[in-house]
Design goal:
The protein has helices spanning about 10-20, 25-35, 40-55, 80-95, 100-110, 115-130, and strands at about 25, 60, 70-75. It is mainly alpha-helical. The model is unreliable at about 135-140 (pLDDT under 50).
């Protein structure tokens, strides 16, 4: 089984704090900020920080004045994590078919006309910039 490298739902809450910060944060500050939005225990936040480091999403440095204090910094951007999560979602639930995944999302979404127009613009930009996969025969997509 492949090692998980993207944040889980609870880890994402911790990452939101770090993505919003321009500088590395000590665990104590991360705990304080996470607890402003969710009743997560300090111990749980520390467990999640450790998991995120193991996944390669975060890194840490030890404070030069106090070896008990760790400063955490982001290794993977929010955009990269979203891309990885999206790819895993498509692979897991749509047999790797991006077209089927997007069709299912569009059919189940209640979008306004202006949102549909915005999506049309995004598709047009992708075509103009060559941001599309090569077509393959019999790929089921």
């Amino acid at each position: 089984m492949e090692k998980e490298t993207t944040p889980s739902q609870s880890e994402w809450l911790v990452m939101e704090v770090l993505w919003a910060s321009d500088t590395p944060l000590p665990a104590k500050e991360i705990i304080k900020r996470v607890r402003q939005t969710t009743p997560m225990s300090p111990r749980m936040v520390r467990v999640l920080l450790n998991r995120l480091c193991q996944k390669g999403v975060l890194s840490y440095t030890v404070d030069k004045h106090d070896a008990r204090v760790y400063h955490y910094s982001v290794l993977k951007s929010k955009e990269l994590c979203q891309q990885e999560k999206s790819r895993k979602f498509v692979d897991s639930y749509f047999s790797g078919s991006s077209k089927n995944a997007m069709a299912a999302l569009l059919e189940s979404a209640a979008l306004t006309q202006s949102q549909y127009k915005e999506l049309e613009q995004i598709l047009s930009q992708c075509l103009e910039t060559g941001h599309f996969a090569e077509e393959k025969e019999c790929d089921g997509q």
